[in-house]
C-alpha cells in the first residue's frame, strides 16, 4: 500500500477533508494529466514516438506526484541518457504512459460531468427563484437538478482525490527505480568519480614532475652556488669582522635555501608515496605501518591492484586514520585491514586507544568523508568514549 498524505486526509471527517488543500491539489494534478492524455493518445498512435513521449512524461510525473501527496520519485541522475529499448525501465515508462491515457480520459470525463452538474444546479437555483432562464429547456426538472448538483459538488472532491491517488500510486509502482537500476546508477557515478579522480591524479603527477625537475633542481643548484660563494668570500676577504659578517649573512641564506629544499622534498614525497605507484596499495600500507612509532599490523594479503585514484584515496584515508589515532587516542596497537570482494572494497583501520573520534576535532576526518564520497562509498566510524575505534571505508569496486 503506497502512502499518500491526501488519502490520510480523506479518512478524516468530511467537513475537515473538504476544507483541506488536497481536493484542490488533486484537481490540479488530474487537470495537468488530462491535458497530457491527448498528446499521449497521438504518441501511442505513432508507435515510433511512444517511447520518447513515455520517457518525457515519466520525467514530469516523478515531480508532479507531490501534488497528489506522494513523495517525489527518484529518477535517473541528471544528464543521463534515455533508457535503451532493452532496459526494463523504458518499458515500465511506456506502460505508465498507456495507463496514463486511460486515467487522463477518465479524469477529463469526470471533470466535464462535475462541471456540467454543478453548473446545472446553479441554473436550477435561478429557475426555482423565478428567474427566466431561456437556456434551461425543461424548467420542471429544476427540483431534481438542485440536489443532484449538491451531491456532485460534495462527491467530486472525493472522486478527484481517489483518482489522483490511483495515478500517483501507479506512477510510484512503475517509475520507481529497482535495486539493480540503483546499483547501475551507483556504478555509473563511481566510474564518473573515478574518471574525475584520474584526471586529478594526472594533474598531480605533472605537479610532482614540475617540482622535482624544475623548482627542486633550482634550489639544489642555488645551495651549491652558495657553498662556492662561501669559499670565494673566505679567499677574497681577509679574516676579521667584515668577513665574519658576510659569512654570517651567507650562512643564514644558505640555511633558508636548504630548509626550502627539504620542505619541497617533503611536499613532493607527501603527494603520493613512490611505493604506492610501483607496488600498489598493500605495499604502501606496509610501508606506512613501518613508519608509525607504535605497533601497527597490516592485513592486505592477496589483494591485487586497483586503479591509481582508488589506491591513492584509500591510502589517504588509512594514513589520516592512523595519524588521528596517534595524535588523539594514544593507542598501543593499530591494525589496518584491506579486503575486497567481487563488487566491494573495504578498508578498516582500528585501534585500542581512547576512542571518541569526531569530525569536529579537525579537517582530517572531513577529508576522509569527502574521499569516500567521491568514490561513491560510505565511511563508517565506530568510536565510543574509552575506545576502541574502528573506521571502515566501504566503496563499490570499479571495473
Short description:
Helices cover 66% and strands 9% of the residues. It is of the alpha+beta class.
Distance between the termini: 38 Å
Beta-strand residue fraction? 5-15%
The residue fraction in helices comes out at: 55-70%
Order of helices and strands: HHHHHHHHHHEHEEHEE
- Count of DSSP helices? 12
User: What is the strand tally?
Assistant: 5
Computed structural class: alpha+beta
Strand order of the largest sheet: 1-2-3-5-4
Radius of gyration: 36 Å
Approximate shape: elongated
Mean pLDDT metric:
77
Largest sheet: 5 strands, mixed
Which segments are poorly predicted (pLDDT under 50) over 5 or more consecutive residues? Answer: none
Q: What would you note in describing this structure?
A:
α10 packs parallel to α11 and α11 (308-329) runs antiparallel to α12. Strands 1-2-3-5-4 form a five-stranded mixed beta sheet. The mean pLDDT is 77. It is of the alpha+beta class. The protein has twelve helices and five strands.
Amino acid at each position: 500500500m503506497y502512502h499518500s498524505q491526501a488519502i490520510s486526509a480523506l479518512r478524516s471527517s468530511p467537513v475537515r477533508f473538504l476544507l483541506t488543500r488536497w481536493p484542490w491539489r488533486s484537481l490540479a494534478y488530474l487537470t495537468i494529466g488530462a491535458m497530457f492524455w491527448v498528446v499521449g493518445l497521438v504518441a501511442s498512435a505513432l508507435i515510433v514516438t511512444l517511447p520518447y513521449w513515455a520517457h518525457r512524461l515519466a520525467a514530469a510525473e516523478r515531480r508532479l506526484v507531490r501534488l497528489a501527496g506522494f513523495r517525489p520519485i527518484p529518477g535517473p541522475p541528471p544528464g543521463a541518457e534515455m533508457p535503451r529499448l532493452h532496459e526494463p525501465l523504458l518499458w515500465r515508462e511506456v506502460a505508465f504512459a498507456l495507463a496514463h491515457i486511460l486515467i487522463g480520459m477518465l479524469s477529463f470525463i469526470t471533470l466535464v460531468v462535475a462541471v456540467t452538474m454543478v453548473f446545472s444546479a446553479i441554473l436550477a437555483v435561478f429557475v426555482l427563484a423565478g428567474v427566466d432562464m431561456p437556456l434551461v429547456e425543461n424548467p420542471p426538472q429544476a427540483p431534481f437538478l438542485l440536489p443532484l448538483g449538491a451531491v456532485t459538488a460534495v462527491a467530486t472532491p472525493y472522486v478527484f482525490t481517489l483518482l489522483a491517488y490511483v495515478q500517483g500510486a501507479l506512477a510510484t509502482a512503475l517509475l520507481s527505480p529497482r535495486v539493480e537500476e540503483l546499483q547501475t546508477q551507483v556504478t555509473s557515478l563511481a566510474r564518473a568519480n573515478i574518471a574525475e579522480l584520474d584526471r586529478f591524479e594526472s594533474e598531480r603527477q605533472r605537479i610532482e614532475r614540475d617540482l622535482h625537475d624544475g623548482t627542486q633542481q633550482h634550489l639544489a643548484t642555488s645551495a651549491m652556488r652558495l657553498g662556492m660563494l662561501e669559499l670565494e668570500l673566505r679567499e677574497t676577504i681577509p679574516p676579521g669582522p667584515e668577513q665574519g659578517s658576510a659569512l654570517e649573512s651567507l650562512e643564514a641564506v644558505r640555511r633558508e635555501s636548504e630548509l626550502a629544499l627539504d620542505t619541497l622534498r617533503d611536499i613532493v614525497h607527501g603527494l603520493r608515496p613512490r611505493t604506492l605507484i610501483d607496488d600498489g596499495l598493500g605495499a604502501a600500507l606496509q610501508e606506512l605501518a613501518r613508519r608509525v612509532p607504535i605497533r601497527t599490523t597490516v592485513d592486505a594479503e592477496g589483494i591485487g591492484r586497483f586503479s591509481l585514484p582508488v589506491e591513492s584515496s584509500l591510502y589517504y584515508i588509512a594514513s589520516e586514520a592512523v595519524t588521528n589515532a596517534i595524535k588523539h587516542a594514544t593507542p598501543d596497537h593499530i591494525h589496518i585491514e584491506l579486503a575486497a570482494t567481487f563488487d566491494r572494497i573495504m578498508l578498516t583501520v582500528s585501534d585500542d586507544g581512547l576512542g571518541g573520534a569526531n569530525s569536529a576535532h579537525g579537517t582530517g576526518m572531513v577529508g576522509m568523508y569527502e574521499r569516500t564520497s567521491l568514490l561513491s562509498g560510505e565511511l563508517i566510524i565506530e568510536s565510543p568514549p574509552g575506545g576502541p575505534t574502528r573506521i571502515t571505508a566501504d566503496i563499490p569496486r570499479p571495473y
